[in-house]
Amino acid sequence: MAQSSLDVMGFQHIINKSIDELDSVLRDINKKIHENPELGYSEFKAHDNIVSLLRDQGFAITPHAHALETSFACSYGNGGRIVAFNVEYDALPGIGHACGHNLIATGSIAAFLGLVAVLKSNPSLEGTALLLGTPAEEGGGGKLKLIAAGAYENVSACLMTHPFSAPGNVTYGSCMASSKFRATFTGKAAHAAVAPYEGINALDAAVLAYNGTSMLRQQIKPDQRIQGVLLEGGERANIITPKSVLDYNVRGSTLGETKDLQKRVVKCFEGAAIATGCSVEFLETNTYADLRPSRALCVAFSEVMKSVAPDHSWTVGETPEPGAYSTDQGNVSHICPSFHGVYAIPVKDNAVNHTPGFTKAAGTDDAHTLTILTSKGMAGVGMRVLFDDAFAKIVKDQFEEAQKAEDWSR
């Protein structure tokens, strides 16, 4: 459908009305996910509850999609371009939904249902809405596996929003790339009192590596991060530790920069192995790419939100506002035009993401209400991508130009 014949306001009214009419259903799924937190790749209740909701709404759905037990896929439409909405629902160990993935799931489901309502209102419209269950965002790299399985092939735009505790909303924002790896030092056990000289201390190697990366932080860029924890460091004080394991996360503004920093961190580990006589082995766990937001999608979202939520600000700057977090949505943004809007929800005592205080905030009525507003915006943008040929071309052209740009590759 050409831009001149696109009934933007009429379609947005259908979106808003349909989402509002389903609010009780959406509140119910939000509550179920929030009250039953599950870790990555174990989100069985969330998966089953969402599948049940969609089936109750009359959709054909593929559970356990793309060879992932807790993923699903649900589409509706009549050919044409495809707009995908990502549904995250994994929690954090010990603190539940401290990143608000219950809200992310709710918002994406609502946006999908709103866009479907437009498609149902006029069967002659070409376009497909796709809802993807994306497990294990919190370090598990679920979207990386979905990408490898071809889940995002032929997707013209992928959208999601994310709750934060920041004082304002971020429409056009990027985030850092992240590379995670595990290092295992192997030494030799010995009696720490009788014959310590017969041992090779893997705990010493871990401590040296940790201190080495701590000193390395003095010579890295202000926006770079090196984070690590000791997972195994021995069992008894009177046994020379034969094995130690560290888990590390290195971040930089781009994927190339992050990998360069990781090489410097690895040298600290290799030096510690040489100094102590240990051997060291590395295991790459996952790599999250930097987020490349589509400016056209961000501008369109901002425009929709002026009518949906006029009391809220959704400005779009000339360049993306940098974020210090990382997400596997970054990897998705490298293969198709993407939107990852960040919206502020009310919190108490300045609680931030990944804290118990944010878990409580993510379960409030206010947080749900704000999430529903963003879902209407996402559905409105999805409507433009599906039915506005000129806009869809701008989105595609901008994405292809960004792919060629040197600053994205580093």
From TrEMBL:
It comes from the Eukaryota. Belongs to the peptidase M20A family. Residues 180-271 form the Peptidase M20 dimerisation domain. One of its GO terms (molecular function) is dipeptidase activity. This is Peptidase M20 domain-containing protein 2. Gene3D superfamilies: 3.30.70.360, Zn peptidases.
